[in-house]
Amino acid sequence: MVESGDVSGNRFDDDGREKRTGTVLTASAHIITAVIGSGVLSLSWAIAQLGWLAGTLILVTFAIINYYTSTMLADCYRSPDDDPGSRNYTYMDVVRAYLGGRKVQLCGLAQYASLVGITIGYTITASISLVAIGKADCYHDKGHGAKCSLSNYPSMAAFGVAQIMLSQIPNFHKLSFLSIIATVMSFCYASIGIGLSIATVTSGKVGKTGLTGTVVGVDVTAFEKLYRSFQAVGDIAFSYSYSIVLVEIQDTLKSSPPENKVMKKASLAGVSTTTAFYILCGGMGYAAFGNQAPGDLLTDFGFYEPYWLIDFANACIVLHLVAAYQVFAQPIFQFVEKKCNKKWPESNFITSEHSMDIPLIGTCRINFFRLLWRTAYVIVTTVVAMIFPFFNAILGLIGSFAFWPLTVYFPVAMHMAQTKVKKYSLRWIGLELLVSLCLIVSLLAAMGSIVGLISSVKAYKPFNNLDK
What keywords does the record list, in alphabetical order (predicted)? Predict the structure, then answer.
């Protein structure tokens, strides 16, 4: 089974690997799965910190920056010598081909640290949405002021079990169906958030909004205004970051038409779609709740009724995160397995595939090393999520450090090497200014994340429910 079931003609591509059959549709689905996370529901909070003017402007600006740098990265999928089989299968391979040296290791450190962090963060986020379903039912039965406390740990365990099974999907090329489901789910819960916000606005019971957002001395202190604004800018900048898996997504595409052209179309479709949802969801959420907008419209109970719709929206978030976990975990799986295959090519435990008949599913290929190692990875990430339930604060810090090198610096540096941009030319100066601006954004966002992390650590009590 491959992306779209191509069975005619040659079964192999120009590099000798199984024929790729990915299209604009499947690549766009992967991008939307990676980009539109449940974080879309927190953008109303981000806009509340910045206000209508800066919030909307920053959303559009970073959409343009992310699309622009993603087109540069897409052009680097093929190596400089442009031989038919000179593909780069991972982000590290691309950096090795164009820049080389120590930068390859720095790229790997930034990429894989972020991927591991994201998978842990998704485990926590999914459990919060699962708990929110139970709490919504509780509030409906007992009233909105009731004390409805549920444990997150059974939800984390259930999410981990689901990931153990899904992690046996061999590689990125087999993930299309999951990404398409996740794309539909993300549209569902984002649309529900937008719809409920519109309903609140039309009812007339709305919060106070402004061009500059929260007001010092009224809503927040001067220090809170400063660090929350930094956090908000960081949240928006990182909300588009799919460069971390762009090369792996591009490696699923058919070779004709050229992969870079298809990837650029998919990036445009993905970024345009997500920007529209971001502006709608963030803007309408801010219009509904004003400067007191909750951190998440659904799990922080900006809305209580209709409770069944809140339940459905949170179920959609969970399904989306189930698929998104795999999109971010697959590059980690492939990296480790490639290294082990190279080091122990004679080991049957590592290299052999076995056929197994599974009722209702059919014949599946099982690799015992893949089964053991991927299961162990999911177990470890689930346990870390249980021990450190404030990990999302750490994830913000990881994201702030990974955004600049992976989304901006490496794509721009490789583009300049590829096109031989003349030093001190207008184009060179413009690109260097872009890199410097985004570095400042990352540093400011890191400062905001550190403040938030300190607050989380102070209130941390091991193995306590997240909603207490």
Answer: Amino-acid transport, Cell membrane, Membrane, Symport, Transmembrane, Transmembrane helix, Transport
The reply to whether 467 falls in a domain is: no
Rounded Cα distance between 348 and 78, Å, is 32
CB neighbours of residue 428 within 10 Å: 13
Lowest mean pLDDT among 37-41, 175-179, 359-363: 359-363
Identify whether 327 is part of a domain. yes
For residue 216, the cross-strand partners are 220
d(CA 225, CA 448): 11
Q: What is the pLDDT of residues 253-280, one digit of tens each?
A: 888 888 899 999 999 998 898 888 888 8
Q: How many angstroms separate the CA atoms of 111 and 107, rounded? A: 6
Q: What CATH number should be reported for the domain holding residue 194?
A: 1.20.1740
What gap in Å lies between CA 221 and CA 217, rounded to an integer? Answer: 6
19 in helix, strand or coil?
Answer: coil
Question: pLDDT value at position 163?
Answer: 94
388: left (phi over 0), alpha (psi -120 to 50) or beta: beta
Residues 6 or more apart whose CB falls under 8 angstroms from that of 222 comprise 216
Report how far residue 441's alpha carbon sits from residue 446's, in angstroms, rounded to the nearest whole number.
8
Tokens of 114: 């972020």
pLDDT at 301 over 70: no
Angular region, 306: left φ>0, alpha ψ -120 to 50, beta rest:
beta
> CA 203 to CA 376: how far, in whole Å?
50
If one counts the domains in the chain, the total is 1
Omega within 30 of 0 (cis) for the link into 306? yes
- Does 225 map to a domain? yes
Residue-range definition of the domain harbouring residue 377: 24-458
Specify burial of residue 214 (Cβ count, 10 A radius: 0-12, 13-18, 19+). buried
Q: State the Cα–Cα distance between residues 396 and 410, nearest whole angstrom.
A: 20
Is 319 part of any domain?
yes
Distance of CA 382 to the CA centre of its chain: 18
Residues whose CB is less than 8 angstroms from the CB of residue 138 and which lie 6 or more positions away in sequence, other chains included: 146, 148, 150
